[in-house]
Amino acid sequence: MVRLVAGGGPGEVGDIDEAEVSEALRLEAVEFWQRRMVRLVDYCAERATDPAELVDLCARVLAHGLHSSGYIATCPVVATATTDAEVKAFRVACDRVFRMWQEALRDRFHAAGVADDRAATLASVTVSILQGALVLSRTARNTESLEIAGVELAELLRRELDTAPWP
Predict the structure, then answer these.
(1) Is the CB of residue 165 less than 8 Å from the CB of residue 48?
(2) End-to-end CA distance of the chain
(3) Residue 1 lies in a domain
(4) How many domains is the chain built from?
(5) Which domain holds residue 74?
(6) Residue 66's CATH number
């Protein structure tokens, strides 16, 4: 228990449970990453000429961020999803991050001419591969897995879209 000044009046003291504060901070971190991943897709889409370049650029931006942080800064969602899966609030928040990221990609793929069901599948594959590559890159302390993931995902999308022009 931590005693902090809180509440309505000056000098009013209240008890704050450290576990509740920790949970709230972890949920806020997950929500931050939800916004960040959607912004990542938007940022890369603005610079890409097609969906293949979009996913390759996403991988390169993630690799750069990971390398620049000394392999410390990475998405906490996988760790939270695996260690706190029994806590409904964490499970729901993590699911929302992955869903929002997939939806952002799906919308971009669909706009490029991919049927909605196929766009959803490709978005799911993209998020799965990039998340796995993030874990591998952080563990190995190099960006090789992210770089490979970006190149291979781009090739998959090129074949799928036959290099459809970006709308």
Answers:
(1) no
(2) 55
(3) no
(4) 1
(5) 28-161
(6) 1.10.357.10
- On whether residue 112 sits in a domain, the answer given is yes
Residue 106 burial class via C-beta count within 10 angstroms: exposed 0-12, middle 13-18, buried 19 and up: buried
Position with higher pLDDT, 160 vs 86 = 160
| CA pair distance 73, 52, nearest whole angstrom | 25
Q: What is the pLDDT of residues 139-163, one digit of tens each?
A: 999 999 999 999 999 999 998 887 5
153, two tokens: 């995902």
pLDDT at 34: 77
Nearest to 81 by CA among 135, 42, 41: 135
Map tokens 């796995």 to a residue.
132
pTM above 0.85, yes or no: no
Q: Where are the beta strands (DSSP E) in the chain?
A: 2-5, 13-16
Concatenate the DSSP letters of all residues of 79-112 into one string: HHHHHSTTSHHHHHHHHHHHHHHHHHHHHHHHHT
Domain annotation covers residue 3: no
